[in-house]
Amino acid sequence: MFANALKSLLSLVCALSLLLVQAAHFAPPAYAQQRGNDLRLIRDEEIEELMRRYLKPIFKAAGINPGAVQIHLINDSAINAFVAGGQRIFIHTGLIEQASRPNEVIGVLAHETAHVAGGHLARLGVEVDKASTQAIIVMLLGAAGAVAAASSGARGAGQAGSAIMMGGQSMVQRNLLSYVRAQEAAADEGALRYLEATGQSGKGMLELFQKLYNQSIGSLQYVDPYAVSHPLPLQRIRVLEERVRASKYYGKKDEDFLVLRHRMAQAKLAAFTRDAQAVYNAYPPSDNSLPAQYARAIVAYRLGDMNSAIPQIDRLISIIPKNPYFWELKGQALLEKGNPAEAIEPLKQAVKLAPKSGLIKIMLAQALLASDSRPAAKEALAVLAKAETVEGQSAQLHLFKARAHGIMGDLPRAELATAESAMLRGDKKLAKEKAQGALDRSSPGSSVRIRANDILNALKQKDS
Fold this sequence. Notes:
Serine Threonine Protein Phosphatase 5, Tetratricopeptide repeat, 2 domains, about 475 residues, mainly alpha
């Protein structure tokens, strides 16, 4: 019963958090729980690297190790970003696409960084624990009242008990959301401090708030300010505007190269997520800007028009030969359209220009493995070993390791890598089967045997 009461409270908090999307668009951890498996996470090295570039000075000002924070992109058109599960920042693609310039995105990321630096998630957990205790008490009282009245035959017994429970939940809900509102105000203050410390304007954050308010003004007319966990946009605008305008950095503009990268990211997102006609409408042939050429090249490859796509990508490469993402796009297009051998060199060039990218290395390994040759498999394993330092939690990486080990004839390691991949995908049955296979085929005391045992023990703990 206690567990069910806790679940009821958490469900209530999750559902109410959806009001945030209308009110302020900066969703709390509960929003991530509400969406659950519906979160459409996407990976893209170019956009992730741009977000890391935006965040690096902010993290430094906040005293946060950039390597300790994970960035996740969600394919969602809403203007939104939130922190969840510790030091993880989730960014909706809608924020990037609808932001007029980099400073708007940076302001949002500064706000989310303040949540991380302030340990707001951990503290929220404490508040939820407090609230759940109250919720359990009032829900038990309500249930007890309903049962007692019902057993005496009193009319309206069920309704009375339900009213007690709903009233109690409302009280708990408001107490909890009041605490979260204080967190949001603190995050706004923190964001302004970080922007000032890094010599950046808060104008973008202010403009984004104004944009959100204009979009939602109709829906906010009858919203109870105490029933949402973030202060309403107009309130936030009024509080922030005076502070932002007083900064000596208020009129500072974004650097030209960041503006270009921002527009390139917008073009890429549009080209990969919208239908072709919508992209051509937004980036017509008459638009000869670099972002427009990028978008049209991506659409051509997605449509399978390689006779048009490759020359367009080559034109981009000729304009900026040291852009790793143009080389990555060429390799990706060739690989996905059935020419893995031709994809190897462009991908190697991309890796050379972006040596820290694990995602591009994984794609290179995939191209190498297409030949099923031992030399290529050996090279792929070396590439994957380097990628694993940053992409160790990639199920795909371990699947390619399994394939490479299989080509090399190393069955114990192939079984182990398959088990690792299955674990990361949540396929416990396959993970157990393959870990046992690695255990049976490996030598006593070997690293393969030790890791296989670790996986089996971890699976037993999850089942217990």
